Amino acid sequence: LLTQPFYEMTLLRRIPATVFWPQPEVASALVRLVRREKQPFASAGQETHFRQKVKQAFQKRRKTLGAIFGSELVADVAGERRPEELSVEEWTRMTTRADWRAEDEMFDVVNERNEVLEQKPRFEVHRAGLLHRAVHIFVLNREEKLLLQKRSMYKDVAPGTWDSSAAGHLAVGESYDAAAEREIMEELGVRIELRPVWPLKACEDLGWEFILLYQGRCEGPFRFPSTEISEVKWWTPEEIDAAIASQPDEFARSFRYIWRQWRKV
Q1: Is 134 helix (H, G, I), strand (E, B) or coil?
Q2: Is the separation of the CB atoms in 105 and 120 below 8 Å?
Q3: Model confidence band, residue 37 (pLDDT cutoffs 50, 70, 90)
Q4: At 167, is the pLDDT very low, low, confident or very high (cuts 50, 70, 90)?
Q5: Average pLDDT of the segment spanning 157-164
Q6: Burial level of 165, CB count in 10 A (0-12/13-18/19+)?
Q7: What CA–CA distance (Å, rounded) separates 218 from 192?
Q8: Model-level pTM greater than 0.70?
Q9: Using CA atoms, how far apart are residues 166 and 147, in angstroms rounded to an integer?
C-alpha cells in the first residue's frame, strides 16, 4: 500500500528457500518496480498525510474505518469497512481530500507577546505564516557531542535536512514542558530529564514560532519513526560549525538560527 502509489509492481519469479545457504525459513520473490510517470500527491505534505493515516489505520487493522477515524472520515467512505478492504486508489483519493485535510492538527495561534488568540489547522498556520509555539531539544552525551536528527524526505518542511535532536509544535492548550517530554519520547523513544535553556522570539528564520529550547543528556540507544526521521548522528560542535559553513542548505533553517545563538553563549 505504501509502495504501489509510486511504482508499477510486477512479480517476476518466486525463489524457494532451498537456493540459499544457510537455508532460511522463508521463501523469497523477485519483484520489479517501475516508477510511475504521474505521481499521486501534489506535495510532500499530502504524501506525509497519506503515510500517517495508513499507519494509524493499520495499527488497528481489525477495527472499522469509522471506529478508527470517527468524524474525520470523509463522507463517501463507508465507515463499516476495514483498512485492508480499501484499494490503493481509494486510499490515495481519501487521504488527499480537502475536507479531510481541514481536520488537520490544530495549533494555538498567538500574538507578538506569545498570548493565545485562537486555534487554526496546521496547514493554515504554516501557509499564512501565523505566530505559533514549538519546542526544540538538544541531547548531549558525556563527550559533549550533540545528537542531530536528519528529517525524513516525507516531511512537509525542510525535508532531508539535519535538525535539532528533537523538535515539535505544541498541541492546543499544551505547555512547553509537556510538549518537550512528549516530543522526545515520540521522536527518540527515550525519557530523560530536560531543563529549559532559553526562549527564542518568533521570527522568519524560526518559521514564526515562539520556541523554548531544552537540553538533556543521554547516551542512547534511540528509537525513531522512519516516516519522521531518516537517521540520527552525534556531532562535535566543531563538526557542526564546519558543515554549516560549507553546506548550510544541509541543515534546517530554524536549527541554523538556534545553533548561532547556542554558540554565542
Answers
A1: strand
A2: no
A3: confident
A4: very high
A5: 91
A6: buried
A7: 7
A8: no
A9: 9
Residue 106 confidence (pLDDT) above 70: yes
Q: What is the pLDDT of residues 210-228, one digit of tens each?
A: 999 999 999 989 988 776 7
Q: Which residue has the cell 538560527?
A: 257
- The H-or-E segment that residue 148 falls in is strand 146-151
CB 241, CB 263: distance < 8 Å? yes
Residue that is written with C-alpha cell 512537509 in the block: 156
Peptide bond into 22 cis (omega under 30): yes
Is 123 in contact with 133 (CB distance < 8 Å)? no
Under the banding of pLDDT at 50, 70 and 90, the label for residue 47 is: confident
Backbone angles phi, psi at 169, to 5 degrees: -85, 155
Q: Is-contact 167 219, C-beta < 8 A?
A: no
Give the whole-angstrom CA distance, residue 41 versus residue 127. 18
Q: Looking at this protein, which amino acid is placed at residue 212?
A: L
Amino acid identity at 99: D
C-alpha cell at 31: 519483484
Q: Cell 560549507, residue?
A: 246
